[in-house]
Give the backbone structure.
Amino acid sequence: MEFRLLFGAVFLASCVGWQPPVSYELQSQRNFDRDLYECGCEATVAGGENKQQVFDDCMKARGYQVT
């Protein structure tokens, strides 16, 4: 009986921090969406006529190839 209780407690404790796996593609899309949003905000704050340049520089700094 004690063995079953101990096994059950260990099993439940191991499940507490478990999260379903996130696919690499989904995680990459989330990162891209976040970077796109943040660079868009930077460009908006920059104002003036150089918004596109600020946006391009921000995306390049995050590792994206801007054409």
About this structure: Residues 22-62 form one domain.
